[in-house]
Amino acid sequence: MRAGTGRTVGHGSVAVALVAASLVAGTGPARADGPHAPVLVAAASLHDESPEKEVTVRCPGATLVFSAGGGVGGSAGGTGQVVVTAVVPDVGLTTVTVRAVARTGQRGPWSVVGQAICEASGSALRRAVGTAVGEYTATATCGPGTKVWGTGFRVTGDPDHVAVAEVVPDPGLTKVAVGVTSDGPPTEVTAYAICRAQTGTMRRVAAVSPDGAGWPRSVTVADTADARIYGVGGRAGGGPHAYLDALVLRPSGAGGGVRAALAAPIRAAAATGVRPGPRPADGTGVATTDGTDDETVVYGILAGSFH
Q: What element of type H or E holds 78?
């Protein structure tokens, strides 16, 4: 276990496949409640062999975080050797911080990417938080009269044994549930929901991986002619060794997606020998939502062009 050593925090200009640029403007019209169209802000950490990395992106000007995303970048993305432990919108909804930790045996450079969809808002945004200690799931619930626009999570525990497998906004967009896969209870699981009043058509849409899909798996949902994807969530599927290593916010017109990885075998550690990858202790480690155990699912929060 290498948590707590050598954290690297940065906003390097290294190119990564997860995002196309550090700032991508939305292509839709300006919103009725503010002068700004949504923008996608992104940044990458340094691309090196540090065992822990963290990056923070900040919304420009008076815009606020409507949704958060990010994940493992560089050649380590999707390999099952790095675990994303946090995608956290701050309480003021001005920044998003993404953190990842390498599992035992990871070799070579890697990076972590943070993303946020930022927009001006005439209606109040609020961050809802739900935390569970020693449990496999946590839920954040929006208050009356508000809907989920964005998601987030944080999990503490040994990344060799604990990883996030589900970040699921419910069909009614009232709450976000986060579930982990683990061979022992994680220290703490936290779910985040970015909540705001619904002022137009909103709905949850989903897409699943094809039958027989290999690893890693990337699944996407698209914007429509009159609505765009704001927040994203997903479920890794594929059994107890599968976990999510990216929640991807894509440029306007492209929607959103998730990437799931299969935990790689852990190379022998000096004192402990080979350790298994993440798995549920008793079958309850991952709270499945629709019974499709092997499919990787992306959930997109679709909102109308004017809100």
A: none
CA distance 170 to 148: 9
Measure the CA–CA gap between 286 and 300, rounded to whole angstroms: 20
Q: Is residue 2 part of a domain?
A: no
Write the secondary structure of 58-75 as one string of H (helix), E (strand) and C (coil).
ECCCCCEEEEEEEEEEHH
Q: For residue 195, list its beta bridge partners.
A: 126, 148
Residue 1 lies in a domain: no
| Residue 69: inside a domain | yes
Residue pLDDT, tens place only, 39-51: 999 999 999 999 9
Which positions ≥6 away from 18 have C-beta within 8 Å?
Answer: 42, 70, 71, 72, 73, 77, 113, 115, 246, 248
CATH classification of the domain holding 234: 2.60.120.690
pTM of the model: 0.84
How many domains, in total, are found in the chain? Answer: 1
pLDDT value of position 295: 92
Asked if 258 and 219 count as a contact pair (C-beta separation under 8 A), the reply is yes
Q: How far is the C-alpha of 258 from the C-alpha of 244, rounded, in Å?
A: 7
Q: Is residue 194 part of a domain?
A: yes
